[in-house]
Amino acid sequence: MSTLALTAYVLIWPIIVAFVLFFLGRGFFKDWRQARKDGRSII
Amino acid sequence: MSSEEMASQQLSAPVTIFLIALFFGGTLLMSILIGKKKENADGYMNAGHNIGFGIAATSMTATWIWASSMYASATAGYTYGISGPIHYGLWGALMILFIYPFGKRIRSVAPRAHTLAEVMYARHGRSSQLMLAGSNVLGSVISLTSNFIAGGALVAMLSPFGFSQGILVMAAGVLLYTLWSGFRASVLTDFTQAMAMLGAVAVIIPVVFFAAGGPDMFETGAQNLTPQQSNFFSSDAFLNQGAPYIAAVLAYAIGNQTIAQRLFAVRQDLIKPTFITATIGYGATVIGIGMLGVFALYLGMEPADGDVNNLIPQMATTYLGPILLCVFFIMIIGALASTADSDLAALSSIMMADVYGQNVAGRKKADPKTMLLIGRVTMIVATGAALYFASGRLNILDLLVFVGALWGALVFPVIASFYWGKVTNAAFTISTLAALAIFIPVRFEMVPMVTATAFAVDVLAVIGVGVVLGLMAFGFFGLKPALWVGSIAAIITAPFGIGFLHDYHVLSGSLVAYAVSTLVCYLMCFRNDKSFDFSLIQKRIGSFDSEDETERPAEGDTTPAR
């Protein structure tokens, strides 16, 4: 693999992790808002 | 880098105490905020079967990422080179993905179950239930022990405190915030733990990469890699690391109660997005952390004291500043605590639902208050047992490989029990025991691999390849495509595998377990003229807190086959 390809291979994972982090955080706060709206505990 | 050099970059005692207090204090506070004076038994085990996508996906991701998976991925990167982390993390991630189609089926026939073993009791009876519950307990205790060991090792390496102090504080911290609210506390605290872990991974990997030399590392360090290590399609990495994990994809998912618990807890229509998100989250995180092992390989770094488990802390102490070292410390604690609390919740629900609820009191007579007490006592006992094992520093990962194969013997009987009405309790039990009886001598090289035995093992292993791939295809595409995929896979593998597979004991052992349990289970059932009525499962399993009148399971409760 070329140096450029190896660099991309290494750095793609933290980028994907950052995206997943965003979606998980957004999903959690949606659940939290919905629970508050319904007047119940989030879990 | 020597141990002495690493010692100079340790966290100080006050900083270590502050970080541990911050982490466990925060999780304890979250647990207190959702705590109820009177918890109910179903909430303690499954949080009411109705949790949303955000919490469920976060919890699944956090639970599946354990400290050992981070260390093991880096070890794979260091040992097998650039493809090593893929052959660890990708297949680990697919364990979550491939189980969700089966999970949807399991949930549809048993929407209010608490454990998979409980469903086996409703489907078959006691022996099937206890075999599955027993393997779940073994797996969770091993996982718990492994996480405490990882915590102790981390504390010993990065702080002035010792290993024993480390395992004790980790065990006490996890038990403290999980004890009162059980699964509810485990799931909610998973959110902060996942945020800490994933956030740390997103920052630490690029920081270490550029601190270690960036792209130039791949040119200056290329001579440190063997041709296999620098090959993305390395056969060494595939056969020694990847293939045994592919064989274990379904086994770990079926055998792990922490996954089943989340399957029964998430809202039924959210199973698919939850499992897919967790697959991506786990895969990217664990493969990403594995890159630290690849960097170490390119840099020519030797693991401290010859222990590859020291690679990640070594990379952290070498290339991270004080603030990011604290973040790294929290990341590892988050990984171990999120899995350890899930193991405690899993163990307590097995003792509550499978042992007390189904076998001691009986479902109709089970007292929810007694169940809660049993759940909490189980957590305390399990923590004590795991501390005892951890203090002896047992080789946990080897034991886990063994348990993985044990779960492999259960995969076909469990899955078939949810789709094929002809599967009986006797077939389930005998096929699993037969698979184990053949697996153990193959895995531990107890029989000499002369021509005849080697040939027999290879043939069974080839059938095992067909079973594994066929089951994977079955989950997504149904029976006919699965039969095609399984048959073609076995036919393609046969010319290469026969005369060759028996040399790879871990791989062939697992494949033989799959093949034997499948063959025995099928041969014992295909002539059965009775077919189980799956709607009975829903009637037999329900809430322990309500007064629902449901039928009790009985052997031979079947309807004629169509």
Model description:
With 43 residues, chain A is mainly alpha-helical. The model of chain A has no long low-confidence stretch (mean pLDDT 94). Chain B has 562 residues and is an all-alpha fold. Chain B folds into two domains: 406 residues, Sodium/glucose cotransporter (Up-down Bundle); 115 residues, no CATH class. Chain B has 23 helices and two strands. Chain B has a two-stranded antiparallel sheet with strand order 1-2. In chain B, 59% of the residues are buried. The interface between A and B is large, with 30 and 41 residues.
Q: How would you sum up this structure in a few lines?
A:
With 43 residues, chain A is mostly helical. Chain A is built from one helix and no strands. Chain B has 23 helices and two strands.
CATH superfamily of the largest domain in chain B, called what?
Sodium/glucose cotransporter
Report the C-alpha radius of gyration of chain A, rounded. 18 Å
Structural class label of chain B: mainly alpha
Residue-averaged pLDDT of chain B, rounded?
Answer: 90
Q: Flag low-confidence runs of chain B.
A: 1-8, 548-562
Strand segment tally of chain B: 2
Overall geometry of chain B = globular
Class inferred from helices and paired strands of chain A: mainly alpha
Oligomer: heterodimer
Tally the helices of chain B. 23
Q: Determine the fraction of residues in helical runs of chain B and give it as a percent range.
A: over 70%
Describe how the helices and strands are arranged.
The complex is a heterodimer of chains A (43) and B (562).
Chain A: H1 3-38
Chain B: H1 3-7, H2 13-34, H3 41-46, H4 53-64, H5 67-80, H6 84-109, H7 116-123, H8 126-158, H9 163-178, H10 183-211, H11 216-220, H12 235-255, H13 257-265, H14 271-299, H15 311-319, H16 322-360, H17 368-391, H18 396-419, H19 425-443, H20 451-477, H21 479-497, H22 505-525, E1 530-532, H23 535-540, E2 558-560
Antiparallel strand pairs in B: 1-2
